[in-house]
Amino acid sequence: MSTTTASLDELLAIPYVLDVRAVQREDGEWMCRVGYDELPGCVAEGRTPFEALTRLERLRVAIVTDLYERGRPVPAPRAPLRV
Questions:
Q1: Domain extent for 31
Q2: Residues with Cβ < 8 Å from 23, sequence gap 6 or more?
Q3: Which residues contact 35 (CB under 8 A, 6 or more apart)?
Q4: What is the top-level taxon of the source organism (predicted)?
């Protein structure tokens, strides 16, 4: 599927590889940081994985929608690692 001919619904259904990390903030509190490397700026944090993923999903939809509406290409996801 070419992202230039894909509908917004098709682009929003693209499964990106999720990057998940536990990070310690300067105040010593641990946070869950999640992101999609292919989507610039698509990173979110939360006290729980659910909180971080909820924020990330909202951000992913906003980024993909913005790219689509501006006629910009939506980056393709990288291939998952093979085990």
A1: 8-69
A2: 30, 31, 32, 33, 45
A3: 18, 19, 42, 43, 44, 56
A4: Bacteria
pLDDT value of position 5: 79
In a domain, 2, yes or no: no
Flag whether 29 is in a domain: yes
Q: What is the CATH number of the domain that holds 49?
A: 3.30.160
Read off the pLDDT of residues 10-61 as tens digits, 9 standing for 90 and up.
999 999 999 999 999 999 999 999 999 999 999 999 999 999 999 999 999 9
Query: Is a pLDDT exceeding 70 seen at residue 83?
Result: no
